[in-house]
Amino acid sequence: MTRRLPHRFVVVLLAMLAATATLAAPAAAQTVLALDDRGPAVIELQTLLTNQGFNPGPIDGKFGPRTEAAVRSFQTARSLPVTGVVDTATWTALGGSTGSGLRTGDRGDRVLELQRLLAAAGHNPGPLDGVFGSKTAAAVSAFQQAASLPVTGIADQATWDRLAGAVVLLRRGSTGNDVLEVQTRLANLGYPPRGLDGKYGLLTEAAVWAFQQGSGSLPVTGVVDSATLAALRAADTGVGAVLLDRGSRGPAVLELQNRLTKVGFSVGPLDGGYGERTAAAVARFQSTFRLPGAGAFNEVTNRRLIAYEREAERGYAAGYVAGAGAEQWRPMIQAVFARWGLDQEVCAIPGNPATCVPSQVEAALSVMHCESRGIPFVVNVTSGVTGLFQHRMTYWTDRVQRVRARFADFPADASPFNPEHNAMAAALLVWQSRDTLLKRLAAGGTIAAGPHPWSAWNCR
């Protein structure tokens, strides 16, 4: 029986075959992929078959009958043994990756395939011309950063495997039953996009973004790629049973009370009894994230709490001290606002005090106190705005992109629960409003006519 080798051994296998090429009797072909296999290597296979005109069905990482039929058709067209199994000869003929990285200066079909996958994953590689130039290298680097891989600009095996799983299936503007499935699974996992309408709008994009961020392992893009869809399907087991409810007592209740208290949902005394105050805290948490349960602690609430605890930990890791208020963030605000030039007075007309806009550091601390009391992971129950400066999640990804356009070191997967990231996005809006105000002052306008640098916030 032919032994099947995992994809990661392909490069070793091909090297061994090359080393023995001078022997009189060549080694028997080894199976690389076959029916019922799954994973990034299958996605690469399906992509290669599709690019060469052989339809394997959906590019979903599942080696099913349609993929097998496409392999047979390819083997027939290339005068290879028609088995439906991808052996080393078939894999090589397809141009499957062998572990050697593509880099600047490379050319050919493999580069063209890389460019198509980058484009499908939402990263612009420049012209789809099979030439690995500076734009393709920049797209590879951007993808690596988004995927939490070493940023080298070289498409090595790890990059290729992750990229093969990042083909965008759904994005803003998509409609239909596939979108409805994603929305339903998001709701079951504690990330409801409000309406289950089959329309991929801003709220669905924000829910996908939050799910990816909460997973701790997916690239945070707001689009549904094959890896995100697989993660949604694997995690979604429905709302599930009630785990704890009014009248429950014991260590499990005490643990829940501690968990809720740490993320800002006070349960009153930590007594191990699921009374009305604990039920009210659970209900507030469910209301904040639009979850079912009416105060009963069920599986979907637990899944969302686990993800929220991970987000809250960002604040504690940054030095958050409960009850210390907004003032504890003064050094961080000073540093962040200095990057935008917002820590100093600026005059539209030198020597004319009437055209001068003061430092925005004190205003930032005042607005932060009003918005969040300095709690980096707070979420508004009615609007869903998040973090120190209460950003709306529907606008977060756009703000991240705008900050990155000015500061390349700002991470693509920046989180509104990270105090510094939240403050950087706030500083962007303040900087833009102040810039508009300075231009109007230079043209004869007045401070009172605005816009106020903090016009994006209701707090003053």
Going by helix content, strand content and strand pairing, the class is mainly alpha
* Domain count: 5
Taking Cα atoms only, what radius of gyration do you get, to the nearest Å? 27 Å
Based on the coordinates given, report the CATH architecture of the largest domain.
Answer: Orthogonal Bundle
Strand content: under 5%
CATH topology of the largest domain: Lysozyme
Strand order of the largest sheet: 1-2
What's the helix-strand series? Answer: HEHHEHHHHEHHEHEHHEHHEEHHH
Question: On the 0-100 scale, what is the average pLDDT?
Answer: 84
**Beta strand count:** 8
Tally of helical segments:
17
Kindly, what is the distance between the CA atoms of the first and last residues, rounded to a whole number of angstroms? 75 Å
Q: Classify the helix fraction into a percent range.
A: 40-55%
CATH class of the largest domain: Mainly Alpha
Shape label: flat
Task: Walk me through what this model shows.
With 460 residues, this protein is mostly helical. The protein has five domains: 7-94, Orthogonal Bundle (Muramoyl-pentapeptide Carboxypeptidase, domain 1); 109-164, Orthogonal Bundle (Muramoyl-pentapeptide Carboxypeptidase, domain 1); 168-235, PGBD-like superfamily/PGBD (Muramoyl-pentapeptide Carboxypeptidase, domain 1); 242-317, Orthogonal Bundle (Muramoyl-pentapeptide Carboxypeptidase, domain 1); 326-442, Lysozyme (Orthogonal Bundle), CATH 1.10.530.10. It has helices spanning 10-19, 40-51, 65-77, 88-94, 109-120, 134-146, 157-164, 177-188, 202-215, 226-235, 251-262, 276-288, 299-317, 330-339, 361-372, 393-406, 419-442; strands at 31-33, 86-87, 168-170, 224-225, 242-244, 297-298, 346-347, 356-357. The strands form four sheets. Strands 1-2 form a two-stranded antiparallel sheet. A two-stranded antiparallel sheet has the order 3-4. Helix 14 (330-339) crosses helix 17. The protein is flat and about 80 Å long. Residues 1-28 have low confidence and may be disordered.
